[in-house]
Design a protein that fits this description.
This protein has 11 helices and 12 strands. It is an alpha/beta fold. It has 2 domains: about 180 residues, Isopropylmalate Dehydrogenase (3-Layer(aba) Sandwich); about 120 residues, Isopropylmalate Dehydrogenase.
Amino acid sequence: MPISNSAEADAAPILVTMGEPAGIGPEVAVAAFEQLGGQIGKRPLRLVGDADMLGGCGALPRDAIVPTRARAMRAPGRPDAKNAAATVEAITLAVGLAMKGEAAAVVTAPINKAALMQTVFRFPGHTDYLAHLTGAPRAVMMLASDALRVVPLTVHIPIADVPRAIDAASIIETAEITLAALKRDFAVAGPRLAVAGLNPHAGEDGVLGREETDIIAPAIAELRRRGHIVLGPLPSDTMFHAEARARYDAALCMYHDQALIPIKTLSFWQGVNVTLGLPIIRTSPDHGTGFDIAGKGLADPRSMIAAIRMAATMADARAR
């Protein structure tokens, strides 16, 4: 169903999914809608989910909601697998509208994977499901703010497994997806990518580990051969201060915490989860379901607002 009265690309709406009904997702989605006045630039905001449940989180006009057929009951702090159908439908519906060009971007509120996995949902998380829905061969997670953009090469795996998960092909593929997104979605001409080493001091010429010498440096050399601007491998303890950050547009890190600690230190409330490599724009606030504070009036919408603003900025970049 059409959700915009205008065919102009700069007026296509930003869709915000409700997320886990028992968490803070519906609260921050509604609060962000209210604080932004239902609009981001020329683009209207629309919330996707169970209309009654979302309406119970704030004063929303009915035309601000793209309703799911499946219903959801909100019991703050108490996730229920019975809500899985509506949670998944909200994501599927939003992505489908974006794929048809009826929405400029999708912003997803956090979901609870444990509740979904009790049903027929068999994806590790949002990113994998979005790749499945859009047919993307590979999706890449970026955390982005005005201060820093980081991409972890490996994500949710034990630290002991990281060295075995690093190979030149994945570094090259992830780097090229990131560089392409910097051009298309962030309007960065001639993007510069910094690549972190794995070991202390980036291996100290093999003395402290050979991953840099044997894997990371050859991958960087190939990226440079392909015409990309790539720095590294760099010691991760000296690549995130202000002067170092001025030399690059995004940093490719070898593991989760190497990427997320600096951005969460610099931009805790402004950091946005961006999925690269999809044919659509997807952002998400960089926090979880917050079951411990759900329904208590304590949820802070700043990260959701940052995610909406970044989605709109990316949509504007793609529309140029």
